[in-house]
From TrEMBL:
Protein's organism: Saccharopolyspora phatthalungensis
A single cellular component GO annotation: plasma membrane
Keywords: Cell membrane, Membrane, Transmembrane, Transmembrane helix
Pfam families xrefs: Transgly_assoc
Record InterPro entries: Transgly_assoc
Lineage: Bacteria, Bacillati, Actinomycetota, Actinomycetes, Pseudonocardiales
Transmembrane segments: 18-37, 49-71
Membrane-related topology note: Multi-pass membrane protein
UniProt keyword Lyase present: no
Name assigned to this protein: Putative membrane protein YeaQ/YmgE (Transglycosylase-associated protein family)
Principal location class: membrane
Location within or outside the cell: Cell membrane
Amino acid sequence: MIAGVIAKFILPGRDPGGIIVTILIGIVGGLLGGWIATRIMGAAGVTGFNLMSFVWAIVGSVILLLIYRLIFHRTHA
């Protein structure tokens, strides 16, 4: 959840969905960030809560927020 809020802080702007979408972006972004860390970047893996896990969750949330904005603006423009 916190990663989603930080992602919205990094990429300010109006997004539909409010707090529910922010929470979902944070949760799914954390999973995406963990996947990127282990599969693509070759990191040792995301284990538990530590600084690098949190950083990867934020990275995943920012990527997911960008994708969400691209999809939303294309379908409703």
